[in-house]
Write a structure and sequence with these properties.
Layout lengths: L15 H43 L4 H27 L4 H11 L6 H10 L2 H5 L3 H16 L3 H4 L3 H24 L1
Helix pairs in contact: 1-2, 1-8, 3-4, 4-6
């Protein structure tokens, strides 16, 4: 059954016991993604500006060369920041979330994905399904989801490490800059 996947259309069709864990999973993924992208962007910016600072400090550069190095560092940082922002704006579809949640916790089986597909189906397709079977599927899926702790499924340690490393690099660059001037 072909299903059009859009987030707003599931409102009112999925029980809150199923929708709440999906939303928590989505927000956890977005937080980890944003932390990861912020760390990568900050580390790259520190590397670019550190290189520009070292070039300026140890080589005799003309004003035009300094301007070109600064523009290159600022431009590359702006491109990375845009990449980070666009990556966060990319929507997470309900079907993708259901697949991801089922992949992280195989005990869910296919119930979550089936529930989301039913909720995303058109009204005429849903009317062809048995209301009792659909309700039973929603209830068993909600029971399985009730014991899931989303924070343990999405590991944020690597993203946190990248962010803290970028902050430490930024502190070192600021310290070096302060020592030079």
């Amino acid at each position: 059954m072909p299903v059009k996947d859009s987030r707003p259309s599931t409102r009112g069709k999925l029980p809150p016991e199923i929708l709440a864990p999906l939303r928590r999973f989505r927000w956890r993924i977005l937080r980890v993604r944003s932390l990861w992208r912020l760390g990568i962007t900050t580390a790259a910016a520190v590397l670019l500006f550190g290189t520009a600072l070292a070039l300026d400090r140890f080589f005799l550069l003309s004003h035009a060369e300094r301007f070109a190095v600064t523009c290159a560092a600022v431009g590359a940082t702006a491109i990375l920041a845009a990449w980070s922002a666009l990556g966060l704006l990319w929507p997470l579809r309900w079907l993708e979330l259901a697949r991801g949640l089922e992949a992280e916790d195989p005990s869910l089986g296919e119930g979550l994905l089936s529930s989301v597909e039913i909720a995303l189906a058109s009204k005429s397709e849903r009317e062809r399904l048995s209301a009792q079977l659909t309700r039973a599927l929603f209830e068993t899926t909600a029971d399985k989801l009730s014991g899931i702790k989303v924070s343990t499924l999405v590991d944020a340690r690597r993203a946190r490490t990248v962010a803290w490393t970028a902050i430490a690099c930024c502190a070192v660059l600021l310290g070096v800059t302060g020592a030079w001037h």
